[in-house]
Every structure is written in structure tokens, then in C-alpha cells.
Amino acid sequence: MRKIIIIFIVGIVLMAIVGGSTFSQTQQQPVDVGAEKTSEKLQAEIKENKDKTENIQDTEKAKKDLREEKEIDSSKEETLKEDEVEKKDLEVNSDAKKKDNHKSKKIFLTFDDGPTTLTPQILDVLKEHDVNATFFAIGRLAEKHPDQIKRIYNEGNMVLPHSYTHDYSIYSTIDGFYEDFFRAEETVSSILDIQLPPIFRFPGGSSNHSSFNYGGKQFMPKLTEDVKEKGYYYIDWNVSSGDAGPDYNNKEKMIENVLNGAKGQDFIVVLFHDVPRNTSMKKILPEVITVFKDRGYTFRTFRDITEEELNTMVQLKLANKPIIR
Ligand SMILES: [Zn+2]
């Protein structure tokens, strides 16, 4: 019985050993295979994932790069757009400038009541600054200084009639006015040996009050209509230096008057006087010329005035201003 029990136990032990090893083998293998498979799979998966990750990373990088590119591009675009805008602005500006220049920004310097001893000084300044002006001359003085009239004209400026006597009694009668006026016109015309354009300036301007004492309040309305019917243009001004007034030798005041008068105006006719007492003219004039040159104005004269410019003058009431009283 003991033997049987021992054999049984040994048998069981043996069976256990053999079976155990078999079990463990059979059990291990699939685990190993599985592990290998899993590892391969994992590795593959890892690789795949890695690839994917790399792909993703690549894609991300690519996207990032693209974004960056886009950003660069868009910043480029923005820069380009900005450039374009700037360019457009510049174009608009230059167009505006062109238009402006084409349209106007014109200045007509005019000097009344010469020629006098001041005339050569005015001419020197004009010459030095390479600009021209218009002189509305007094016939009586032109007869005395024909050389000055010639010099004015020969240096590219214009001389037109103002009056022969510059005595306000010319405003007593229509005939009396024309007698004086035609004499002035004829004097200048014969000195220069040219036919003058039908352009002049009334003594005191078209809206003068001096005529009230002679032909009365309704004299200028009547005279101006008659002058227009004869085909003449009478020229006034929209900027006065004030040099016929008490501050005529105050350089700063004269310049200030001109600059204030010119504010916001692109088409300017400035009134100066060619009279001996205006000794500050040689200091005032260079500054006035420089300012308007810097502001882009073209210096024009009535010598080569265009029909368009004359029409502009009529519109601005610088020429043939209706006098209604
Ligand atoms: Zn005058």
C-alpha cells in the first residue's frame, strides 16, 4: 500500500513535471510568438505612427511653412498693397499736381502808374528771379521815359495802358474818358511799335469811388458796359499789396498783405505800384516772388495771356467785373 502511494505520488510528480514543461512550452510559445508579433506589429505600428507622426509633423511643418509663407506672402501682399496704395497716392498726388499745374496756380504781378525811377529796380528784380510782370503805364510818363517802356517789353514783360493823365476828372464824361484812354493806348503802342491787345486797367480800378465826384455813382456802371461793348477787357486785382496806402514802405506789412490776400487762391492778380516812393520794392518783391515760386505758381503776364485765362479772369471777376450800383 505504501509502495502504491509512493508510486502514485512519484507518478503525479513526474506527470506534473512533464506536463508542466509541456504546458509551459505550449503556453510560452504563443506568448512569445504573440509577443514577437505584437512587437513587430508594435514596431510596425510605431514606425507607422512614427511615419504618421513624421508625416503629421511634416504636414504640420509644411502647413506651418505654408502659413509662414502665406504670412510672408500676405505681409508681402500687404507691403505690395501698401506700396500700391502709396503708388496710387503718389499717382493721385502727381495727377492732382498735374491738374493743379494745368488748371492754374497762376500769379500775375502788375505794376501801375509807371514808368518812374523805380521801374529799373523792379525790372532788375524780375530779371534776377527770371519772372515777368505787366505794367499798366501812365501815357504821360511813358512819353517822358520811352526807354523804360522799351526795356520793360524787351525783357519779356508787358506794357498796357492805364490812363494818359491819371487825373480822376477822366471820369466826368464818357467821351472825356476815351480821349484820355486812347491817347495812353496810342502812346504805348507807338513806343513799342506794336498793336496792343484790348486790355487795360482803370485808374482806381473798375469799382473806384473817385468817379462819384465827377460823373456820379452811375458813371462806372455805364462806362464799364460801354468799354465791354467795344471789346475791351478791364483788369482789376484780387490781391493788393497796399503799397498805395500809408504802410507803403513797411516791408513786412506789404508781404503780409500779399500773403493774406493770396490765401486759398490759385489764380492771383497782385496789385503793386511803380512809384518812386516805394523804395522798399526791391526788398519786398524778391520775397514775394520766392514764396509763390515755392508754392508752385506760374508767373504769367498779359503779353501772352490765353483766351482760357481771360475767361477765368472774367469768371473770377478779375476782368470785366460787372459794376452794379
Ligand atoms: Zn493808377
TrEMBL record:
Region (Disordered): 25-84
GO biological process: carbohydrate metabolic process
Residue ranges, compositional bias (Basic and acidic residues): 34-84
GO molecular function: hydrolase activity, acting on carbon-nitrogen (but not peptide) bonds
Pfam family for this entry, one: Polysacc_deac_1
Domain NodB homology: 105-300
The protein, known as: Peptidoglycan/xylan/chitin deacetylase, PgdA/CDA1 family
Natural source organism: Natronincola peptidivorans
Lineage summary: Bacteria, Bacillati, Bacillota, Clostridia, Peptostreptococcales
